Predict the structure.
Amino acid sequence: MMLIRLETIVVEKPWGRTDIPPAFGDFGGRRIGEIWFANPAGDDAPIMVKFLFTSERLSIQVHPDDDAAQAAGYPRGKEECWLILSADPGAELGVGLNVQTTREALHDAALDGSIVDMIDWRPSKNDDFVYNRAGTIHAIGPGLIVVEVQQNVDCTYRLYDYGRPRELHLDAGLRVAHPGPVHDPRDAVVDPHANRMLVSGPHFHLAQIAAPIDTALLEQAAGEMTFVPVSAGCRVAGESVALGEAVLLSAPTAIEIDEGARALLAWPA
C-alpha cells in the first residue's frame, strides 16, 4: 500500500492568527494564515488541501473555470469547498452577491470599496460546509479556522483587498465572475460524527469519515487519495496522522478512526 506523508508548508499572512490551537503545533506566536500540503507531483496534482486561520477579512476574489483558466495558460480552473472547524461569534463567509448586478457596476464598486456591501455575508458556525463554484465572487471573514479542498492551481483574481498593497485583477476577474447571488445544493451543516459524501465531482470527490467507518463509502474512493485528519484519533495502517498533517494513500481500507474522531478523504473525479 502506498503511504506518503505530505510536506507541511506553514505560511504567515497579515490576516492570519497568532492563537493557532496547540493541536496544530507551536508556531512561536507567528501570524499563521495557512497550512498546506505539498504533493510530490507538484502542479500535476489535481487536488490541494489547506487549513486557513483568519483574523481579518481576506480579499474579495473569484476563480475561473477550466475553460477560462486554460485559455489564460493555467492547467485547470479552480473550484473549492470549505468545512468550518471553528467559528468565533459573528464569523462570516462571503459567497456570491446579495443582488443581481452588472459587471460594469461591479467594476466601479471594486474601485470605491462598495463591493463589500454587495457580498452575501453569511453567518458561519462550526461544521458548516460550503461549495464554492468557479465564477462565484467570495471572501472569507475573520474568526475562522477552515479546511479547504480545491482544484490544485495558483490562479486567484482579486477584486478588492481592503487597501492592502497587492495587485488586483479586475478585468480578468470580472470576465469570469457571476454578477449575482449564488447558492449550491452541496452547502450543508455536517454532523461531525457522520460518514458523508460531501462532493461527488465534477472535479474531485470529498468524503467525511467518522467512526464507525462506512465501508461502502470507502469503496467509492479510487486512485491517489489525500487523507486529512480534522481531529485527533486518526491513523493509516497503524501510523498516527495528526491534525495539521496529510498523507497520500492508495488503500482506504487502511484508515482507522477512533470514536468521536473524523477526517476528510479527497480523490480526483
Q: What stands out?
A: The mean pLDDT is 97. The domain at 196-268 is CATH 2.60.120 (Jelly Rolls). Helices lie at 66-71, 103-112, 170-176, 215-218. Residues 136 and 266 are 22 Å apart (CA to CA).
